[in-house]
Design goal:
The complex is a heterodimer.
Chain A: H1 3-31, H2 38-64, H3 66-86, H4 95-115, H5 118-139, H6 146-168, H7 182-207, H8 222-238, H9 247-274, H10 280-283, H11 290-312
Chain B: H1 2-16, E1 19-22, E2 32-36, H2 43-50, H3 53-57, E3 59-64, H4 65-68, H5 72-81, E4 85-87, H6 100-107, E5 111-114, H7 132-139, E6 144-150, H8 153-156, E7 170-173, H9 185-199
Helix pairs in contact in B: 1-2
The chains are: A mainly alpha, B alpha/beta.
C-alpha cells in the first residue's frame, strides 16, 4: 500500500468516527436537554467540534506537504506559547527575551527541521536558548523575581516550542522502508494522544470512581485511565499498518504515548493550578485552550520521537 | 485598502487577540464615543480590530499628529485605512481649538475612539482624565459614551518598546455612561474614569 492509499484509508476511518461522534453527541444533546448532564454533553459537543477543525487542518497540511506541516506546528507553538505567557506574570524588562522567544526561536526551531539539521535542532533550546535568554534578561537590569521570570519563560519555551516541535521533527527521520511516509507517523502520534484524552474522559465520566490526583486534576480517575488508556493503546496497535512498526511494537509505542500523554496532562494541570487557573481557555475569555488540547502531546512527542529514532533508524 | 484593513485585523488578532467583550450590551451602530485607558501604541488598532465590521467603518480613532502623522507608512495607515481624526497635542497655534477636528467628525455623524488620559501610562489602571471628553459630552448629549478597558496591552507593548510581543489581550466594552444633568466637570471625569476602571 502506498503512503497516499494509507492516508486516504486513515482519513476515511477518522471521518467515519467523527461522523459517528457528531451523531451521538447530537442525540445525547436532544435527549438530555435541561437535565443535570447538559453541561457534560455541551463539553462533549464542543470537543467533537474541535476535533473536526483539527482533522480538517491536519488533512490539508499533510496533503499540501512538508512546509505546510512545519508552518502548522510552528503556529501551534506560537499560540500555545502566547497562552502560556499571557498567564505568566511578565515585566517590562522581559520584553526583549519575549520577543526573541516568539520571533526568533520558533521560526529557527522549525526552520532547522525544514533543512534537516538534527544536531542543532536538538540543542537549540535546551542549550543555546537556555543560556542566551537569562543573559539577555540580565542586561535589562531588573533583578526583581529574576529567577522566577527567566525560568518561567524557559519552561514555557521548552514545553510549547521544544516539545511540540518534536512531533513535526518526525519528518526528519530516515526510517528504512518507510521513505516519504513520515507524515503518517505524525498523524499516528497525534491521533493516539488525542484518542487517549477523549477515551479517558469518556470512560472517566461513565465509570470513574477512584480519583488518581484529586488535588491536581479532579477529573482524572483510575477507571478512566485504564479504560481510555487501554482503548487508545489497542487502537494504536491496530493502526500498525500506517507505521514502520510491527503490531506488537505499535502496541508498545501507543502505550508509551498514552502514558506520557497522561503525565503531560497531569503536569500541566499542576502548572495551571500553580498559576491559579483552571483552564488555559476559561481564564482567557473567548480565547486559548490550545494548551488544553496539546498538553498530552507535549510530553508524548519527544519520547515518541526519540524511541523511534533510536530503534528504527540506522 | 480593504485588503490592507483585513490584513491589519488579522495581524492584530494573531498578535494580541484583541478579542471583544461586550459587557455592557450588544454592539450597536448608534453614534458613540469609545473612551479607553491608554498604555501602548497599538491601543488604537486593538479597539479598531475588536469592533464589528459595521461599527468599524463608521468609527474613527482620534490620533495625535505628532505620532500618527509621522512616517509615510504610518501616515498612510492612519489616514487611508483607519481614517483617523488627527489632533495637535502640543498646541502650535494657540488660537486653534484642539477639539475642533473631533467636533467636526461628530457633526458628520462619525463615532470616535479616544484616550482621555491624553498620553500613554505604564500601569494597569488609567490616570486622571483630561477635560476634552467632558466638553464633547456636553456638546453632543445624544452621542453614547462607551467606556472601554484594554486588558494586558501594557504588557504586550510597554511604553518605550517598538514592537509588540504576542499576549492575549481583551477589549472590554462597558454600558453607555448615563447622562447626569448639572454635573461638574471634575465629577463627570471621575465618573468616566471609574467606568473604565470598573471593567478592569
Amino acid at each position: 500500500m502506498s503512503a497516499r492509499d494509507k492516508f486516504y484509508y486513515l482519513i476515511g476511518g477518522v471521518l467515519g468516527v467523527l461522523i459517528l461522534a457528531s451523531i451521538i453527541s447530537a442525540v445525547l444533546q436532544a435527549r438530555f436537554r435541561g437535565s443535570d448532564s447538559e453541561a457534560v454533553i455541551q463539553n462533549l459537543t464542543s470537543r467533537v467540534r474541535a476535533w473536526w477543525a483539527m482533522v480538517a487542518v491536519f488533512a490539508i497540511a499533510f496533503m499540501t506537504g512538508k512546509n505546510a506541516t512545519l508552518v502548522l506546528f510552528a503556529l501551534m507553538s506560537f499560540f500555545a506559547l502566547r497562552e502560556f505567557i499571557t498567564l505568566t506574570p511578565t515585566k517590562r524588562a522581559d520584553h526583549v527575551t519575549l520577543f526573541l522567544s516568539f520571533f526568533v526561536l520558533i521560526p529557527l526551531q522549525y526552520w532547522l527541521i525544514g533543512i534537516g539539521w538534527y544536531g542543532l535542532f536538538a540543542i537549540l533550546i535546551p542549550v543555546y536558548a537556555f543560556l542566551v535568554l537569562p543573559a539577555v534578561a540580565a542586561l535589562a537590569q531588573d533583578t526583581d523575581d529574576f529567577l522566577e521570570r527567566v525560568s518561567k519563560l524557559q519552561w514555557g519555551v521548552m514545553i510549547t516550542v521544544f516539545c511540540v516541535s518534536h512531533a513535526a521533527a518526525l519528518l526528519l527521520l530516515n526510517i528504512p522502508g518507510y521513505a516519504s511516509q513520515n507524515a503518517l507517523l505524525i498523524f499516528y502520534l497525534v491521533l493516539v494522544a488525542q484518542l487517549s484524552d477523549v477515551l479517558q474522559y469518556v470512560f472517566g465520566k461513565l465509570f470513574g470512581r477512584t480519583k488518581i490526583a484529586p488535588v491536581v486534576s479532579p477529573g482524572k480517575t483510575l477507571e478512566g485511565l485504564i479504560g481510555g488508556g487501554l482503548g487508545a493503546t489497542l487502537i494504536g496497535g491496530g493502526m500498525y499498518w500506517i507505521t514502520p512498526f510491527t503490531p506488537v511494537q505499535a502496541l508498545a509505542m501507543s502505550f508509551v504515548i498514552v502514558l506520557m500523554g497522561f503525565f503531560g496532562g497531569l503536569a500541566l494541570s499542576a502548572v495551571k493550578r500553580s498559576l491559579r487557573v483552571k483552564d488555559w481557555s476559561t481564564m482567557i475569555e473567548g480565547h486559548g485552550g490550545m494548551l488544553d488540547r496539546l498538553d498530552s502531546l507535549t510530553f508524548a512527542a519527544p519520547i515518541f520521537f526519540h524511541l523511534t529514532r533510536y530503534y528504527f533508524t540506522p | 485598502m480593504s485588503l490592507i484593513s483585513a490584513a491589519l485585523v488579522t495581524v492584530m488578532k494573531a498578535l494580541v487577540g484583541a478579542h471583544p467583550r461586550w459587557q455592557g450590551g450588544p454592539p450597536s451602530t448608534a453614534q458613540s464615543i469609545y473612551f479607553a485607558n491608554h498604555t501602548s501604541h497599538i491601543d488604537t488598532l486593538a479597539i479598531w480590530a475588536a469592533l464589528t465590521p459595521p461599527l468599524r467603518v463608521r468609527t474613527r480613532p482620534v490620533a495625535a499628529r505628532d505620532y500618527w502623522g509621522r512616517g509615510a507608512v504610518r501616515r498612510y495607515v492612519a489616514l487611508k485605512v483607519l481614517n483617523v481624526v488627527l489632533i495637535d497635542r502640543h498646541k502650535e497655534d494657540s488660537q486653534a481649538d484642539p477639539l475642533r477636528p473631533m467636533i467636526e467628525a461628530l457633526e458628520r455623524g462619525d463615532s470616535l475612539i479616544l484616550f482621555p488620559e491624553g498620553t500613554r501610562g505604564a500601569d494597569r489602571l488609567p490616570a486622571a482624565f483630561r477635560s476634552g471628553l467632558y466638553r464633547l459630552a456636553h456638546a453632543f448629549p445624544t452621542v453614547r459614551l462607551i467606556p472601554v478597558y484594554l486588558e494586558n496591552l501594557h504588557r504586550a507593548m510597554p511604553k518605550g518598546t517598538f514592537v509588540p510581543v504576542p499576549l492575549i489581550c481583551t477589549v472590554r466594552f462597558g454600558a453607555p455612561l448615563p447622562v447626569v444633568s448639572d454635573e461638574s466637570k471634575e465629577s463627570f471625569l471621575e465618573r468616566a474614569r471609574a467606568a473604565v476602571v470598573e471593567l478592569a
